[in-house]
Structures are given as structure tokens and as C-alpha cells.
Amino acid sequence: MDRAGARHTGADSAEGRASPDTARSPLTERSARVASARKLTRRAGRERAGMFLAEGANAVLESLDSRTAERPRTEVREVLATSEGLRRVPEIAERCAASGVPLWTITERAAACLSETVTPQGLVAVCEAPATDTATVLAPRPSLVVVLLDIADPGNAGTVLRVADAAGAGAVLFAGETVDPYNGKAVRASTGSLFHLPVARERDADTVLAACRGAGLLLVGADGAAHSDLHTAEESGRLDVPTAWVFGSEAHGLGEYGERLDVTLRVPIYGRAESLNLATAAAVCLYASARRIRPDVK
Amino acid sequence: MDRAGARHTGADSAEGRASPDTARSPLTERSARVASARKLTRRAGRERAGMFLAEGANAVLESLDSRTAERPRTEVREVLATSEGLRRVPEIAERCAASGVPLWTITERAAACLSETVTPQGLVAVCEAPATDTATVLAPRPSLVVVLLDIADPGNAGTVLRVADAAGAGAVLFAGETVDPYNGKAVRASTGSLFHLPVARERDADTVLAACRGAGLLLVGADGAAHSDLHTAEESGRLDVPTAWVFGSEAHGLGEYGERLDVTLRVPIYGRAESLNLATAAAVCLYASARRIRPDVK
To answer: Are the CB atoms for B253 and B224 separated by under 8 Å?
Structure first.
């Protein structure tokens, strides 16, 4: 909350800057600032800039909180908001002011340009994607880790991030061809958990698995066709150790990676459903581990 | 699979009827058959007709299987399909023929009219909503039951149905102002489980709770603010009895109903997430009960 640490304070044009004393005309979708934020709605733009957008009241507030968190820490470059959005969520202007994060008012149309939702909330934080890697996030030796392997759907990825956070996981690793964790839909589905948990990306899945093994984690894959079932493994004490849960693609599961893990387990199906979806299967698996490891009790 | 049991076989006009020997012109969106099916995309239309639509290859095949199931049993009035859809999923024409369910080809535009998805699969079954009630579905004394109370989102309702099926629940009760289980999005999200599990609707939630109690079920509510947590309850043997899990609205939880249940439990949050979403919370709760009750072992 160090005002002296605020950046940009002198350099910004006064136009659009939200300030307590003057009402300026809001930035339109044609302004350079909105145009450059808009590039972050695409993966290529995010990767080029190393930045992403967090949309909605909850995500913006979480991003602002995250600036002062121990770990992980996300820098917020600026917040873009409609005056209606600021009226609805007055804490945002207060927190921006308290932490020296530049706040700009934008038009409703500019907000629609930056939004991937049908009804934009008119509140967007422009954030720096934390520069980190698999080794760094595994360095504190977390006792519960999630590996997402070739997960295609951003909603699924974000929901699993939320479940991982709830179950006390210490990191989520995006491996292989998995969707970008900073995709707008993934950020929204994580409901703030993206700002709670260290996340790293690595295209080479074998590197991720080796790093987990090197960090003393048992590699456990979720596989609907596995011989052993989760509850039996849990009862036998198999899950009483630091574990990396590996979840494979919605379409093809773990594929060839299944054989390279220490064990694969299926969530037992007691009824006639063919399977669980990714997020509900992950919830059952991660809570089975959490029950045993109690990751909150360090 | 009794051909003699087929209805409608004589009365239908030949136009549009898919048959192995002749190619007729497909039904358009202006045909009476498609127009009357289209009414089932709205709740009022479904309630008036007592029928609903099951869309997509998986749902159509499940509905056809359900006709010969022990319980629940759904009657399929007819299947409407584009020729492209039938080419892609040839089992549908085979199963319709084998079971005497009328099959009609429709145009792509007619399929789009009947679909609530962006990319319609061109495969729709017109089904009768089973006429049942809470007392009937509880009569076989299931050991695990799910009560959905004021759940607004059809995707959530369908996903919980799928989880309930996987966890071996014997019934799902839609209580209060809960979304229609036969809503197209709910049917899709259930991925066939709507055809596996007896489902009943009752607007008076107290009637549902009383019926569950009368059926010997412990009434357990999921509540993020409850004092007792799920794992402690599970370890103490509290969940070793026939249980009705009650899940409240996404926005307001159990509300006043919490006090009328035997116990409310929270899923412990080990990390910094504020909560789990409905489907993942239900997965953790229902599998905790399933682990204890093993509903497959009757």
C-alpha cells in the first residue's frame, strides 16, 4: 500500500484517468490504451506482452489483493472501468487509489470490446503474467500438486484451478497442449484462484512429470479405465504421501502418459453414468488426497 | 425390441419418414411435426405436452435404450434427424427400426430450430416426461438421494444429475423453484443420466423433505458456512446411513431450509478459494456418502 511505489503517475494523459476531483471523458474503444488491452483477449497478444486481463468485480479485486500477497504475486498495470461499474463496486476505486494502481474510465462500448462475456461488468484489470517456471513453483515442496495435461477447455481448466485451490494444492502445472491459464474464460472460471495458486506452463509434458518426481511427489493419474479404484487406494494408505494428480485431456485421457506415472486410479462409478466430467472427477480425487494429507496442516 | 409394439406406423404421412427403400424430402421448419417439437424448447410447451427433447447422439441413444430399461422408463415418441446426422451415427436408424420408433428426416434449418446449441448435431428425440412423483421414486427406499432446492442454472442441475448417477444415487428430487430437469441444457449436461435415474419435481420443498424423512433418509444439507465439516462427519460414522443430500441455490444456499435438516456440513476449504461450485461440491459430498454406503452393494 505504498503510494510512493505507484508507477505511471506522471506520464499518463489526464484524459480518462479516474480521479476524485474531476470528471474526464472516458476512453473509447479507439484509444491506444483500450486497443492495446484488447490485444490481450487473444493468446498471441497475451504471450507477446506477457500480460492478461482479469474481468469482473471479483477478479479485479482479487488481482489487486494479489499485489501484496506473499506468493504468488501478480502485478496489476492498470484497471479499466466504466463509470457504471465503478458506481456498482466502489471498493475498486478505493483500492486502486490506496495501492497506486492507475484507474481509467472507459465507455460501455470499450468495455464490450475487452469482454468475452455477453453482459460485460465493465471492470477489467490489466495484469502481468507472473514470470515463473515448473522448478520455481515446485521449490517449496508442496504436498499436493495438480498437473493438467492437454486440457482443451478453458472453463474446465479454470474450474479445476478453483478445486485445486479449495483442496489446498500448492501449485497447478499446465503441461503439453493445455489451454492458456490466462485465457479470459479460464480466469473467470477460476473465480480468483488463479491469483491464489502458483501456476506454471511447460509444453514438454515429460519435463513436468520429471520435475514432479524430482520434488518427491507420487505421480497419480486419473483414468476411468484404470484397474485400481480411488477409494481402495485411499484406504490402503497409498495416498498418504505428497502427490501430483495428473488429469488428461477431455477427449483422450492420459494417453501414452498413463504408463509413465506411478499409479493410475479410477473414480468408482456406482450407478450407470459412463463417467464424471473433468472438474467433478478432479474434485473427488483432490479431496481424497486432501482428506489424507490435510495440506492446511503444515 | 418388439416390432409389433410400434405405434404410429400406419398413420404417419410418408413425407420425411426415413425408410430404407425410398428417399423422401426432409421435413422443414414449417412442417407441423417440427413446429410442434419446437414448442418443447420452452418450459411452458414442455409442461403443456408432458414431453421434452433429447438432443445429440448420446442423448438420443440413451433415450432409445431407456425405453426397455427396468426403471426409470422414458417413452420416445419419435426421432427427428438430418441425413448428415444419420450418416454420422448410423446406430440411430438401426435402433429406431429395431424398436419401432418413428424416425423422420429433417432439414438442417429445422434441426437448428430445435437446437439450443451453436452447432446442432441434427439428432433429436421427442420423449415423454415420465409421470411420477416424490412418493413413487422414494418407494424402493434408495440409500442415497439428491434434493436440488431452488437451483437456477440448467447446466448445474444436469451436471449434478450426472454426479448423482455416478455416485449411485437412487433418485434426484427437484424441489421448490428449481430449473426444469427437462430443459434442453439440463438434459445435455446430464449426458444421459436423466434416463438412468428416477427424477421427480415438487414445488413445495417441505413436502419433499418430509417425504425423504418418511423414507428413512437422514437429511444432510451442504452449506459452506456450516460448523461441522464433511470429513469429520464421515469419520465419525455420521454418513453411514441412508442419506438425502440437499443442495441449495447457487445464490442463496439453503436459506431457511438449513434449520429443518438433520445436519448441515461444509466441504472443508484447505486453500484460499472462497467456495466450490455446486457441481464440484456435490461430487465431494456424494462420493463421501458413496464411499460409506457403497450404494452398488445392495
So the answer is: yes
Contacts of B265 in chain A (CB under 8 A): none
CA gap B198, B282 in Å, rounded? 18
One pLDDT digit (tens) per residue for chain B, 298 residues: 333 333 333 344 555 666 544 457 899 999 999 999 999 999 999 999 999 999 999 999 999 988 777 667 789 999 999 999 999 999 999 999 998 999 999 999 999 999 988 888 999 999 999 888 999 999 999 999 999 999 999 999 999 999 999 999 999 999 999 999 999 999 999 999 999 999 999 999 999 999 999 999 999 999 999 999 999 999 999 999 999 999 999 888 999 999 999 999 999 999 999 999 999 999 999 999 999 887 754 4
ipTM of model: 0.89
Interface with chain A: mutation pick from B70, B71, B270, highest number of A CBs within 10 Å? B270
- Could A271 and B295 be called an inter-chain contact, meaning their C-beta atoms sit closer than 8 Å? yes
Name which of B146, B156, B287 to mutate to probe chain A: the one with the most chain A Cβ atoms within 10 A of its Cβ. Answer: B287
Distance CA A221, CA A226 (A): 9
Task: Give me the residues paired with residue A53 across strands.
Answer: A126
Residue for grid cell 426421432: B79
What is the rounded distance in angstroms from the CA atom of residue B209 to the CA atom of residue B221? Answer: 11
* Residue numbers in B near A167 (CB within 8 A): 270-271
Instruction: Please give the domain boundaries of chain B with CATH numbers for all domains.
Output: 3-128 (3.30.1330.30), 134-293 (3.40.1280.10)
Measured between alpha carbons, how far is B26 from B18 in angstroms, rounded to an integer?
Answer: 9
Of B271, B287, B296, the CB nearest to A169: B271
Q: Do B196 and A271 touch (CB under 8 A)?
A: yes
Q: Determine the Cα–Cα distance for residues A85 and B255; give it in Å rounded to an integer.
A: 29
Q: What is the Cα A257 distance to its own chain's centre?
A: 24
Query: Cell 436423466 identifies what position?
Result: B194
What is the DSSP track for A120-170? --SEEEEEEPP---HHHHHTT--SEEEEEES---HHHHHHHHHHHHHTT-S
